[in-house]
Write a structure and sequence with these properties.
13 helices; 68% helix
Length: 370
């Protein structure tokens, strides 16, 4: 008779707190920036990296087009007031606040950092993190899906147009060469994905996890190329730790203002709680996955400083919205399960729960992919 070996105690792994959604991908982004600082691509290697980055951007937008269900997007038009509110927050309120920050130049923000800050305000909203946080907060998840999809689709056209209008000489603008780059690298691959979705949509859906690594790897390549160009051009002497601290403070004010405007503004417009949650999380965030390739096309060698504010804002919005989503969830649970008043007689029956199951809460760390 053999004696079973004693069970080994489970290994204890170091994990960040649940309210601090710092995952491996964010660390990979930071490591990529460090690699570009230590070993920037130059000469022939820079040409190879730039060509690979161009191909990666085209692949990213092809996959965006192949994933977006046109039928679901059209079905979501029935809630047009909510989607117009999110689009207004993303492409109207954000740019207005970005323009108002021009008064901070040059005392708080350098002209180069302000260009990146204003570009941040022009980027479309996220999809994955909007869905994740809306679900955690018990909001209108289908509305968040459609709102994020509409924002990403509109951003392919609106972000370059607004960048040409508001950034002036900071971006390449809508010159013949700039327009051709936008069409070939962003719009044509996206439309190709939409046209071929009928044949490749199933493959994309079945291999979503593997293609997710392709997405993130492509973005890492874009980041490495952009920051390598910045190192070779010697632009990092313009950024000091003090300037970075001031940039973080300005972005914190921007995020707080948008969270307040989307929440209380949606209430004034007569939206219910579930819709207000979707509006707040879809209308207050910016997509790193969409913004990085666009910056690479629009800014060229100056893309490094253009994407720095977006990368910082991306992590800040994840941390703040993770805390806010769990707080909203607890508020809903408190409303659904009020504490019964004490009774002198037999115990009173418990109140019936509200109809409809609560939406499952996905892992918030996955939200950093958007």
């Amino acid at each position: 008779m053999t004696v079973p070996a004693p069970a080994r105690p489970p290994r204890r792994t170091l994990r960040p707190p649940s309210w601090l959604p710092v995952d491996g991908y964010v660390l990979a982004l930071l490591a990529t920036v460090g690699l570009a600082a230590l070993l920037p691509a130059s000469g022939d290697a820079a040409d190879v990296a730039e060509g690979a980055s161009t191909g990666a951007v085209a692949l990213l937008f092809f996959l965006y087009g192949a994933r977006l269900s046109t039928r679901e997007a059209l079905d979501g038009l029935t809630h047009w007031r909510l989607h117009l509110t999110v689009l207004g927050s993303t492409f109207l309120l954000f740019p207005l606040l970005g323009l108002a920050a021009r008064g901070l130049v040059p005392t708080v923000l350098t002209p180069e950092l302000y260009g990146g800050f204003l570009f941040l305000c022009l980027v479309p909203s996220t999809i994955q993190s909007s869905i994740a946080f809306t679900s955690i907060a018990r909001g209108n998840v289908p509305a968040a899906i459609c709102a994020g999809s509409f924002s990403s689709l509109a951003g392919i056209v609106l972000t370059p147009l607004l960048a040409a209008l508001l950034l002036g000489g900071s971006a390449e603008g809508l010159s013949a060469d700039g327009l051709l780059k936008i069409v070939l690298q962003l719009l044509v691959p996206f439309l190709a994905g939409q046209v071929l979705r009928r044949w490749v949509g199933g493959f994309v859906g079945r291999n979503r996890k593997v293609l997710g690594y392709v997405d993130r790897g492509s973005i890492l390549l874009v980041v490495y190329t952009a920051f390598s160009q910045g190192m070779v051009a010697g632009i990092w002497h313009l950024v000091t730790p003090a300037r970075l601290g001031l940039l973080l403070a300005v972005e914190a004010v921007l995020l707080a203002a948008m969270l307040a405007l989307t929440w209380y503004g949606a209430r004034r417009l007569g939206f219910g709680r579930a819709d207000r949650i979707a509006i707040q999380f879809a209308g207050s965030k910016k997509s790193l996955a969409a913004g990085l390739p666009m910056a690479n096309v629009l800014f060229g060698p100056q893309a490094a400083l253009a994407v720095l504010p977006l990368m910082l804002f991306h992590q800040m919005q994840l941390m703040v919205c993770a805390v806010l989503a769990k707080r909203r969830s607890r508020d809903v649970e408190g409303e659904r399960s009020p504490e019964p008043e004490p009774a002198s007689g037999p115990s009173a029956p418990e109140p019936a729960p509200a109809s409809g199951p609560a939406a499952p809460a996905p892992d918030t760390t996955a939200a950093s992919r958007a």
